[in-house]
Write a structure and sequence with these properties.
Three-Cys-motif partner protein TcmP; alpha/beta; Tcm_partner; two-stranded antiparallel sheet; seven-stranded mixed β-sheet; globular
Length: 308
């Protein structure tokens, strides 16, 4: 029997954490975004992007307990794969597509739960062996749809038109801290990540991802980042009465704040009547004190941050 009292996943899936409403909302955002990403880049351009890499940097065990419905809730790794397949099917293209999924977690029990429990429960057990697997859809085009498909090809390429589409999938499971993974994997990023890549980063704490890693990802051609930044701890330090020198150095080193948070803290002590509105991306909301952190990385390629 699956229990939901744990904060972490057991290797056999017998103990899994409850899922919070905001985590369910994040998963739904991931699903919709990835499905439309495939539809847009693969399905709508003339030739279409045919190589994708999806990296879940803090993947967890892949399944939760939903107390609202008293049933299991699939985690982000499963939902990423399902969203890719939905977008692939909706695209209705005859081009084959290659997708590499990379699931990273520093806790081996989490990866064991993902591979041995969550994937089989979701009907994806064949993907845990690390090999390439083919997911095929047979297409039944009307005459009009056949003409539309033919129009996407040059005259010399029409002979390759077929009535099925193949999705080649491969999963990698990496037992490592995400920061250590970035240092080892990104040295050959131009060769390793071909096509389009999406990084989903939902760490347990702000200190698990440095701005250096964000920049390294941002330097990969065709990369995107969805980064969930939980700021409760940061708010306690910025607006709290107690803070240690070591904590300040840690914030400034990892987040590369360069005194920014000290200035915000000082600004908080100024009467509101003396604060003039500013059109600045790094700003504190006056109602609920939410912070959007956009460090000075590559300004051409934005980082999507979910403020929870």
């Amino acid at each position: 029997m699956i229990t939901s009292s744990a904060k972490w996943w057991s290797a056999d899936g017998s103990s899994i954490p409850d899922i919070d409403p905001h985590t369910k909302a994040k998963h739904q955002i991931y699903e919709e975004y990835i499905e439309n990403l495939i539809l847009t880049l693969y399905g709508k351009s003339r030739h279409g992007e045919t190589t994708f890499t999806f990296v879940d940097g803090f993947c967890g065990g892949g399944v939760y307990y939903d107390t609202e419905n008293n049933q299991s809730w699939l985690g982000s790794p499963i939902r990423i794969i399902q969203a890719v397949r939905k977008g692939f099917q909706k695209a209705n293209r005859t081009l084959d597509i290659n997708v590499n999924y990379i699931f990273i977690d520093k806790n081996k029990h989490h990866l064991d739960c993902l591979k041995n429990h969550a994937f089989p429960c979701a009907g994806l057990g064949e993907l845990v062996d690390g090999k390439v697997h083919k997911f095929t859809i047979n297409l039944d085009f009307s005459l009009e749809e056949q003409d539309q498909q033919l129009s996407l090809f040059d005259d010399l390429d029409k002979k390759v038109l077929k009535h099925s589409q193949n999705l080649f999938e491969q999963c990698e499971f990496i037992n490592l801290e995400f920061e250590k993974y970035t240092q080892s994997a990104f040295s050959n990023s131009n060769n390793f990540y071909r096509g389009h890549s999406l990084f989903i980063l939902d760490p347990f704490s702000w200190e698990h991802i440095s701005m250096q890693s964000i920049r390294m990802i941002n330097d990969i051609k065709g990369s995107e980042i969805i980064y969930t930044y939980m700021i409760n701890e940061l708010k306690r330090w910025v607006f709290g009465k107690k803070s240690s020198l070591s904590t300040r150095k840690k914030y400034n080193t990892i987040l590369e704040a360069e005194g920014y948070y000290e200035s915000i803290r000082a600004r908080r002590s100024v009467p509101k009547s003396r604060i003039k509105p500013r059109n600045v991306s790094r700003e504190i909301g006056s109602d609920n004190w939410q912070m959007e952190l956009n460090p000075l990385i590559n300004p051409i390629k934005p980082v999507l941050t979910l403020k929870m």
